[in-house]
Amino acid sequence: MTITLNHRTPRLRLRARCAAWARGPTFARDIVIVLAIKFALLMILKYAFFNHPQAEHMSLPPAVVAEALLGVPAPHPSRGDTHAR
C-alpha cells in the first residue's frame, strides 16, 4: 500500500480557492463586496467632510460646546453647588 503525499503548495490551493470564490455566485462574496463598497464610501465621506475643521482658527471651550449641544447652561466653576451653601 502506498501513500501519496499532496505535493501542491499552499499558494496553489489558495489561488484555486480564490478563483472558485470569484467565479461562483456565493452569498458570502456578495456580502464582502457590499461591505467593501460601504467602507470605501464611508472613508470618502469622512475625508471629505470630517477630516479637518472648516476654519483652522476655530476652537471653543468644552463648556460652550456642551451648552450648545445639550441646551443646558454649564455650571459656573466659581459658584459651586447650591446645596453646599
Can you tag this structure with a few keywords?
single chain; 85 residues; mainly alpha; 3 helices; CydP; transmembrane
Would you give an account of this structure?
It is built from three helices and no strands. The chain has one domain. The protein has 85 residues and is mainly α. It has helices at residues 10-23, 27-50, 62-70. Helices cover 55% and strands 0% of the residues. It is elongated and about 90 Å long. It starts with 9 loop residues before the first helix and ends in a 15-residue tail after the last helix. Keywords: Membrane, Transmembrane, Transmembrane helix. InterPro entries: CydP. The chain crosses the membrane at residues 31-50.
The ordered H/E elements are HHH
What is the number of domains?
1
Point out poorly predicted stretches: none
What coarse outline follows from CA principal-axis ratios?
elongated
Question: How many β-strand stretches?
Answer: 0
Ends distance: 95 Å
Radius of gyration: 29 Å
Largest sheet: none
Could you say which structural class the secondary elements and strand pairing correspond to? mainly alpha
Report the β-strand fraction as a percent range. under 5%
Task: Give the oligomeric state of the chains in this entry, treating copies of one chain as homo and distinct chains as hetero.
Answer: single chain
Discrete helix count: 3
How much helical structure, as a percent, in the residues? 55-70%
What's the average pLDDT?
A: 77
Please specify the SSE layout and strand pairing.
Layout: H1 10-23, H2 27-50, H3 62-70
